[in-house]
Amino acid sequence: MDLHLKGRRVLVTGSSSGIGEAIVRLFTEEGARVVVHGRNRERAEAVAAQIGAAGVAIGELVADDGAASIHGEAVSALGGSIEILINNAGGNSAGNTSKPPAAISAPDFLSNYKANALGAVQLCQLCVPDMVAAKFGRIVNVSSAVAMQPNFMGADYSAAKAALNNYTVSLAGSLRGVNVTANVLTPGVIMVDGLVRFGRAKFGDPDMTADEVNARLAAEAVFDVPPAGRFGLPRELAMVAALLASPANGFITGANYRVDGGQVRGLN
Fold this sequence. Notes:
The chain is an alpha/beta fold. The protein folds into two domains: 9-190 and 233-258, NAD(P)-binding Rossmann-like Domain (Rossmann fold, 3-Layer(aba) Sandwich), CATH 3.40.50; 191-231, no CATH class. It is built from eight helices and seven strands; from the N terminus they run E-H-E-H-E-H-E-H-E-H-E-H-H-H-E. It has helices at residues 18-29, 41-51, 66-78, 106-134, 155-174, 193-203, 210-219, 234-245; strands at 9-12, 33-38, 55-58, 84-87, 137-142, 180-187, 256-259. A seven-stranded parallel beta sheet has the order 3-2-1-4-5-6-7, with helices on both faces. Helix 5 links the parallel strand 5 and strand 6 (180-187). Helix 3 runs parallel beside helix 4 (106-134). The longest helix is centred in the middle third of the chain and has 29 residues, at 106-134.
């Protein structure tokens, strides 16, 4: 199926590794012109060179002028406005995975909000006017299953991702009839490089493949195993991102597309 991504100008934040890297690789395969974003220039440039990307944008979204700087670099590299924005950058910036909610400080809540919601909001604000003027735009905000099914620990991260989900619905509703869509892509546990390294260390075998780590983690229920019986692959998320970003797919907006193997119960 032709997703009509050829030549489209795309920025994927947090794309020098993991889920973001899988997304830029797939979009480039589909003929899109992609900017790789990361905090480490060497890593981002290496990925960009491997896939033949249009360029790189380097910087911290949480910095005061971070979004504006990244947006400017991306537009310059693409030679035009951003048509497809994939907000993937984020992560548990405070690392509070073992603290109960009442023990998490206000600064940590703020740090996670900036990392997982505010940066995406700022980039949307920078990109949307050009999208509306062109009568085409696609925004995909990468969230997390914990936005809908929060853990007892790490409440600051869960709350930030929930804020991103709600913002996306509001944004979609404001873009009525202009062919600009905004959707959420929600991963569960995904076999990114860090999880593969964790599995190799846990099982004492540095030569295990990602598939072998996946199977062993699931067999031993190191994490809650979803109904799919395994954990997700970065490319599986990339495929859904490409679907949501397709110019041929303008009737899906304000939606939450879960790629979690059934981890979240219910259809929310």
